[in-house]
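The instructor's notes for this session suggest beginning with a concrete chain rather than abstract definitions. Hand out the sequence below and ask the class to guess, before any prediction is shown, which regions might be ordered.
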Amino acid sequence: MYQAPRGTSDILPEEQAYRLYIEQKAADIARLYGYKRIDTPVFEDTELFLRGVGEATDIVQKEVYTFEDRGGNKLTLRPEGTAPVCRAYLEHGMQNLSQPVKLFYIEANYRYERPQAGRYREFRQFGYEAIGDSDPALDAEVIDMAWRFFVSMGINNLHLIINSIGCPNCRPQYLEKLKAYYTQGSQTLCNDCKTRLEKNPLRLLDCKNETCRLLASTAPRSYEHLCPECAEHYVNLKKFLSVLGLPYEVDHCLVRGLDYYTRTVFEIQPEIEGAQSTIGGGGRYDGLIEELGGKPTPALGFATGIERIAANLKRQNLPVPGLPGAVVLVAYLGEAAREAAVKLCGELRKSGCAALQASGGKSLKAQLRQANSAGVRYTVIIGDDEIKAGTVQLREMTTSEQKNVTPQELKEILLGK
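After discussion, reveal the predicted structure:
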C-alpha cells in the first residue's frame, strides 16, 4: 500500500472547508489594507535562499529540499515566501512603483524537518509583505493586519509578543556582549547552541532546551543596545501599537529564525502551552533587497501556517462555513426516465443549480438513500407517468413531502425565484 510521504497529508473533502475559509479570510483582510496577490514559483535558484534566508539558519542547513535539474541548475523547493517575493520585486521593476508595494501570497512551502503537531514537511502558508517604506507606522499596520485576521475568525485569548533586534550598525556590538555572556556558560549549552555560539549567536536566545532557556532569561537584551535610529523606531512602533489598541508584551528572547530580520520582530500566540504555540509572526528585513542585488530598501512582512490555524479553530470549537453542495438529486424509474433525468440534470446545471444525477441502475429506494447520504434538500423523481404528463415528482427530503410540479415550477423552487 502506498502512503503519503512522511510529513505530508491528503486534504480530504471534509477538511477543505477549513482551508478555503482561512484562505478567503486572508484575502479579505489583504483587500481591506490594500494588498495585492502575488504567486511565485514553487522552486527557485538555491542561491536565493542561501543569500536571503542565511547559510547559518536551521532552514538552510537542515531543512531545504535541494536538487539539480537536467540542465545542471541547483534548485530548491520554496521553504518560505519572503525571499521569492523580494526576488520578484526586483525582477519586475516594482521599485519604480509607488512605495510601499503591498503584496500577499497563499502558497505551499517545503521543509525537511521532524513532523509534529502543527509542523509538516509540506505546508500551506500565507503572508503579507510591505516593501519600500521604513515608517514604524507600517510595522504597526502589518501587525494590526495579522491580529485582525485571527480575531476575524474568532480566535481569542491572543498574545502579541514584540522585540527589536537592531540593525547592522548596532547589532554587532550587541552580539559581542551576547557571545561573551554565553561563553561563560558554554559548558551547559546543548550541541546546537554550541554551534550557534560561533555561527549564529542571536539564535541562542531562541533555543527550546530547558538549560539554554534558563541562560537566555538573564542574557543581555537587544532593545537595551540599540543605536539612536533603531531606538527611536522601536519607541514609535510601541506608540502606534497603543494608538491601534493592540496590547503587546516585550520578550527579549524573541529573535525569529531567519537571518534577514532587522529591528522589529513579532509573534502572535494563542493561550496554549507548548513549543508550537505561535500561530504567526514576522518582522522587518530592511537589508534583504540589497542582499539580493537591489538598492537599500526597507521592508517587512508577516506569515502564518494554514494547518496551524485550522488546528486552533478546531481546538477552540470555532465553526467554519460548510462548502456549498448539491441542492437536488434527480432519480429515475426505467430507461426512458433515465434519459429524461440526464437531460434535466444538464438543464438545472445550466441554470446555476447544483444537481446530482443518480446512476448505476439502482432501485428507487437505493437512489433515495443516495440522496440522503449526499445531504441534498430535494429529490426529483421521474418515471413513465411523469414523462407522459410533462411533470416531475419533487420530494422534500427532511419532511418526505412529495408533489407534482412542472419543469418551470421546479426551477423556480430550486433557484429560489
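Then share the key points. The first strand starts at residue 36 and ends at 37. Residues 60 and 286 are 20 Å apart (CA to CA).
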